[in-house]
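Title: Prediction job returns without error message
Component: structure pipeline
Severity: low
Priority: P3
Assignee: unassigned

Description:
Job completed but the reporter wants confirmation the result is attached to the right record. Sequence as submitted:
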Amino acid sequence: MESSHTMATTHKAPNYVAIFVWLIGITAVEVAVGYIPHSIVPREVAYPVLLAMAGTKGVLVALYYMHLRYDSKWFLMMMLVSLPLGVLFVLAMVLGFARLAP
């Protein structure tokens, strides 16, 4: 008889406290950038930096707190497929409401 066993993937448990500290640090930098006058850092520079930091925080949360890094790759693929649709929806809503603004 053959012994059948499944290959268990072993991985080191992530340090959630360190990730939390990174998230707090990025948030603190975002708040600091928000308080910098636009005469020092123009909006054309500040807004992409803020979006990049928000994206970094989103990726950290998705990978570690939503466990996408160690779960089945199907969950990651479903999220990556639906993410552009969500972005398009938000963009459509923002542009739609921008037309209504006086």
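Comment from assignee: result matches the submitted record. The first helix runs from residue 16 to 35.
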